[in-house]
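Predict the 3D structure for this chain.
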Amino acid sequence: MSFFGLVRREMYGSLNRLIVISALGGISTAAILTAINSGAQAADKGSVSLWSATLFVVALFLFVKTQHYILITATAEIEAIIHKLRLRLMDHVRHSELLPLESIGRGEIVSAITKETSTLTQMSNTLAFAAQGAVLIFFVAMYVAYLSLLAFGLSIIIVGVAGVLFHAKSRQLAMASHEASNLEHRLFDRLMDLLNGFKEVRLNSSRSEALFDDVVEVSRAAANIKIRAQSETFKRMVFLQSALYGLLGAIAFAVPTFGDALGTETVTKTIT
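Done. Predicted structure below.
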């Protein structure tokens, strides 16, 4: 089940309302950018745009209110879902037979109750901001299209190519993260072996060395996989930033070349 499906099934409040508020947050951000752009244009002409100032104040107020609602509501809903999931998992554990529990492993069980549920908290803010970002991108795209269809088309091409390249390695990154998680579960099981068999480990040097060698190997493998995964994540972040700068550069240098009808003012407004 996807994260969105889990939230939709388990949350107490209205998911549609949260989505609407997130959309309003994105709209308010786009309105703030529009007001600043319009105000700067009026300032260049030596006047003050009261309409832009009013729009800026209203949009800023709406932005603050939506951010407070989104963050507080998302946190409360996710923590309530985590509470339900933890109780459900622990209830399953106390009613389970010993053999299935041993086949799953202590590391997997402990991780599902503690580590995996904490991931939901991190994902809640990501989901809320992603919804706002999608709305913001939509309205900014409409604004760019209004200013220049050529700049809009160029933006679509660059963003589309960047999105395809960004998504190309998402599956590999997910597989690496899953493999690292499995190795951490295995490392936790080795720690339980050390604690539960403490006397045997102290008395049997060969058993102690074999167990510790396995711990070293598992820990090293988990560290290497995490290094590769984190390196790939940072590379993707740099790639997205480079794509953004490339987009701005294309609008600043390529659009005027192919669209002589565009004035300097239009290009400036499109970039900002």
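The chain has two domains: 1-147, 148-272.
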